[in-house]
Amino acid sequence: MYSETKPLLSIASAHLLSGLFAFIYVGSIYTSKNARLRFSKRKVNLPEGQARLKLQNERWRDDPDVIKARLLAVTSATLICCLIVFTVMKNLNRDDGIHNLTASARLHLGFTWSNTLPLLITPLLFFGPLYVKFLEKTLPFQKDWNFKDDVLFRFLSIVGLRNYLVAPITEEIVFRACVLTVYHLAGASRTKMIFLSPLVFGAAHIHHAFETYHRYGCTVTAAKRAIISTVIQFTYTSIFGFYCCYLFLRSGSLLPPIAAHMFCNIMGIPQPNYEISLMPNRKLSISAAYVFGIIGFVGMLKPWSYTDVSLYWQPN
Q1: What is the C-alpha end-to-end distance of the chain, expressed in Å?
Q2: Can 205 be counted among the known catalytic residues?
Q3: Phi, psi angle pair for 227, to nearest 5°
Q4: Is-catalytic flag, 171?
Q5: Most exposed among 57, 61, 200, 213, judged by the fewest C-beta atoms under 10 Å?
């Protein structure tokens, strides 16, 4: 099996491999003509913050045929990245039989079950938004919750499959499991893995600037908006990546970061001020719920995320 004392990869090799994974994943949606976006290059002056209407010959990211092509592309890219990890591990230790190699790759990639507690950390953080949904009676099986609209239409539509299933699963496999595996093989510290590897995840979202620029009119204002939105997206995807890396390393399973990714996509960005403006008589209780969620998250993150079977977080 693999030595714990001598790194099997150089850090430079880990950097190159993580960059390769990002290139394969993002590049996959541009290799197929059906998956590529198509925009008019015509400049359109629009009111501040307003996107233009779609033209007939254009292809936007939410077009069903574009989504289908991209889902196939990123799924294929994810399988390729896993195969690269398996090949790298095989070449690093040629003495291992296929059974041992497969078992080791499965552990490194986090293809294992998780305890319940790591799965509850993200919902705890969202205690405030969940409490608001409770007040609105829109939680599952409450009065204003509808199975057809809130489950079938939302999650089983082509957009829902992308946002809540395929994207979280494939992104976590590539940018958490594959990337962290090669950094672990290179002997990177847990601190570096948590705070440096997610930058690859953040950088993988930079290509959205192209879409923003064209949807907002191909003007100087549109370029500024594309740059600002890209910086913001890079920042919050990197921060989210820090959290998912921590969950993955502490639990040793890919399930907690996938569940966190899905849950965050479902809930969206919390808007406490807006929610309070809709229910001013509930300001105190909503504020208390948000505070409770944040304090609970900070307090329970460490104890709830750890499992003693994690390959990455063994006691020193």
Answers
A1: 19
A2: yes
A3: -65, -45
A4: yes
A5: 57
Beta-carbon contacts of residue 158 (< 8 Å; ≥ 6 apart): 64, 67, 68
Out of 171, 172, 261, 275, pick the active-site residue. Answer: 171
Q: 99-132 burial string, b = 16+ CB within 10 Å, else e?
A: eebeebbebbbbebebbeebbebbbbbbbbbbbb
- Give, as one character, the DSSP assignment of residue 234: H
In order of 24, 67, 102, 106, 178, the CA distances from 86 in angstroms are: 16, 29, 8, 9, 10
CA distance 24 to 81: 8
Cα separation, 205 vs 65, whole angstroms? 21
Give the model confidence (pLDDT) of 82-109 as tens digits: 999 999 999 987 777 788 889 999 999 9
Both tokens assigned to 34: 């059906």
Query: Measured on CA atoms in the order 177, 71, 122, 112, is the torsion positive or negative?
Result: negative
Closest CA to 30 of 207, 217, 209, 175: 207
How many Å apart are CA 67 and CA 59, to the nearest integer? 10
Residues whose CB falls within 8 Å of the CB of residue 214, separated by 6 or more in sequence, listed in order:
37, 39, 40, 41, 222
- pLDDT value for 5: 59
Is 177 within 8 Å of 254 (Cβ atoms)? yes
Q: What is the pTM of this model?
A: 0.93
Which position among 58, 136, 205, 208 bears the catalytic label? 205
* Nearest CA among 225, 180, 227 for reference residue 199: 180
Rounded mean pLDDT of 33-54?
A: 85
Confidence at residue 316, expressed as pLDDT on a 0 to 100 scale: 66
In sequence order, which residues have a C-beta less than 8 Å from that of residue 219 and are 6 or more positions away? Answer: 43, 44, 45, 46
At residue 1, does pLDDT exceed 60?
A: no
